[in-house]
Design brief:
The chain is α/β, with parallel strands linked by helices. The chain is built from 15 helices and 11 strands. Bound molecules: beta-D-ribofuranose (BDR) and calcium ion. The site of calcium ion (CA) has 8 residues, from loops. This is Pyrimidine-specific ribonucleoside hydrolase.
Length: 314
């Protein structure tokens, strides 16, 4: 089975993504690291541990990482989307974790797991990229063991946190630029343009609810989040961004990608946190110099929606 580590800020869609990886027979989930993001680090950490307890994965270590962005302090959370506790106010209803929080910090756990791995490891960051940037900067030898970094983040069109920027990238643009522009490991970027198209509807959620105790417990985390997306989408559905990225991490090729240069805007103007993906025709791209800081990234642009929704439910 493919080796996988998830870096996360649960978050309702993170909870879905974590459960997907924790329950999949196609991956060996080596560890989970937590980061600031949707709610403060203390909440994302307990949420991640409770989701693993729900999935009966006490074998998976969880370590807490960065409580704030790498360089700049300015930060916005997403409690209005995910609920004040990150899980529609239902976190405490989940099972208590039986495994203690790992004593190591996230970056140390990531480095230790990578160094110990006997085959390449996929990392799926589904929150701000602070921990991953710190890992790449501090542990180049461990980073050499990374097969792919499959990131939920970015926007090719409009953003969701500002007009230009998607939440995960906006939350730590400098870290995102370090990860995407570094030559440490190949990156796949799963932007919100595609995750929105993969939204699930009431019938899918009902099926999840009636699938068994874990499905029902995940479904119980959705009310606040679903209400937010009912407004955002204009219909009764939910965007499970992070689960789309983790599906690709589990089963490469689930998403169709285009390889294009990407640069993260780190200025403090209205474009802060934008992911500038150069999707011009190759001939036009070749006619002008690419910006120095842009690197080639596999950007996810399409998928077989029915197959993806079936995989997630399965
Ligand atoms: C991303 O932001 C968070 O709110 C979600 O968990 C997802 O990772 C979507 O923009
Ligand atoms: Ca997330």
């Amino acid at each position: 089975a493919r080796k996988l580590i998830i870096d996360t800020d649960p978050g309702v869609d993170d909870a879905f993504a974590l459960a997907l990886a924790a329950l999949s027979s196609e991956v060996d989930l080596l560890g989970v690291t937590t980061v600031h993001g949707n709610v403060p680090l203390s909440a994302t950490t307990i949420n991640a541990r409770r989701i693993l307890a729900l999935c009966k994965r006490a074998d998976v270590p969880v370590a807490a990482g960065a409580a704030r962005p790498l360089v700049h302090r300015r930060r916005k959370e997403a409690g209005e989307v995910h609920g004040a506790d990150g899980l529609s106010g239902r976190s405490a209803a989940l099972p208590e974790p039986s495994r203690p929080l790992d004593e190591r910090d996230a970056v140390t756990l990531l480095a230790d797991l990578l160094e110990a791995a006997d085959e390449p490891v996929t990392i799926a960051p589904i929150g701000p990229l602070t921990n991953i940037a710190a890992l790449l900067a501090a542990h180049p030898a461990a980073a050499a063991k990374i097969e792919r970094i499959v990131i939920m983040g970015g926007a090719l069109g409009h953003g969701n946190t500002t007009a230009a920027a998607e939440f995960n990238i906006w939350s730590d643009p400098e870290a995102a630029q370090r990860v995407l522009a570094g030559d440490d490991a190949p990156c796949v970027l799963v932007p919100m343009d595609l995750t929105y198209r993969c939204a699930v509807g009431a019938a899918w959620l009902d099926e999840l609810d009636s699938s068994g105790p874990i499905g029902a417990a995940l479904h119980a985390l959705t009310p606040d989040y679903r209400e937010h997306y009912r407004g955002a989408l204009g219909w009764d559905g939910m965007v499970i961004h992070d689960a789309v990225a983790v599906a690709e991490a589990i089963r490469p090729g689930t998403l169709r990608t285009d390889r294009v240069p990407v640069q993260v805007e780190c200025s403090f103007g209205p474009g802060r946190g934008a992911t500038h993906a150069d999707r011009r025709l190759p001939a036009l791209r070749a006619s002008t110099d690419a910006p120095d800081a842009a690197s080639d990234v596999d950007v996810a642009v399409d998928t077989d929606l029915d197959a993806l929704r079936a995989l997630l439910l399965d």
